[in-house]
Design goal:
This protein is an all-alpha fold. Helix 8 crosses helix 9 and helix 8 crosses helix 10. The longest helix is centred in the N-terminal third of the chain and has 20 residues. 32% of the residues are buried.
Length: 215
């Protein structure tokens, strides 16, 4: 009987080894995240620096919790489902390729480990002094005095983000293209804040001030 049990155990171990060798269920973590990130490179770049031409934001160094949250929103339709959100519509199917339970965490962990980048300025210069007044009235509560965001409030860091991307997202929040889904609580909060920014000039002033925080 012992010989039979021993043979069965050997077969089980052999089967596990064969599955691993043949690309069975991958181990979650940085190695898996790096593998998954290959599908992100065409838009976000090898270093997570983003691409203005493709309207893909810089994601390098974003907190793991934030990347996980956004990927989950894209997968669930809380983000990127608006018919006019072209970039979101492109991102949703990419997020849905993360099919295994630990894939979102693995790729988020990898992205969080990339060195933070500081994209070049592309917008006409806003007024940072005017932006400071508005930032310290509207934005500071969630994003903090240093613009680094706060996990308890689900607010991301802003200091390493491209100016064109911040402007595009403020417009999306204000128009309801983003943050309007009833299950997107943090998005709806941000949308309410964006609604207080009267026009593009005010948005650019705020962005100009945020860029001073990264120096």
């Amino acid at each position: 009987m012992r010989h039979v049990l021993g043979a069965v155990l050997c077969l089980v171990v052999l089967a596990v080894l064969l599955l691993s060798a043949c690309g069975g269920t991958p181990t979650p973590g940085l190695a898996r995240g790096a593998q998954l990130y290959d599908t992100c490179v065409p838009c976000h770049g090898e270093q997570g620096q983003g691409s203005h031409d493709l309207s893909a934001p810089a994601i390098a160094g974003l907190p793991q919790w934030y990347v996980e949250a956004q990927l989950t929103k894209f997968k669930g339709g809380q983000r990127g489902a608006h018919p006019n959100d072209v970039e979101g519509a492109r991102m949703r199917p990419m997020a849905r390729t993360l099919t295994r339970p630990t894939d979102v965490t693995s790729v988020a962990q990898y992205v969080a480990g990339l060195a933070e980048v500081h994209p070049v300025h592309t917008l006409p210069a806003g007024d940072p002094q005017a932006g400071a007044s508005r930032y310290n009235t509207v934005c500071i509560v969630c994003h903090g005095p240093d613009g680094r965001g706060m996990e308890p409030l689900k607010s991301p860091s802003l200091v390493a983000q491209a100016d064109w991307y911040m402007l595009s997202q403020l417009k999306k929040f204000k128009s309801g293209m983003r943050g309007a889904h009833p299950e997107d609580i943090s998005g709806s909060q941000m949308r309410a804040m964006a609604m207080t920014l009267e026009d593009e000039k005010v948005m650019m002033d705020v962005i100009a001030y945020i860029q001073t925080l990264s120096r």
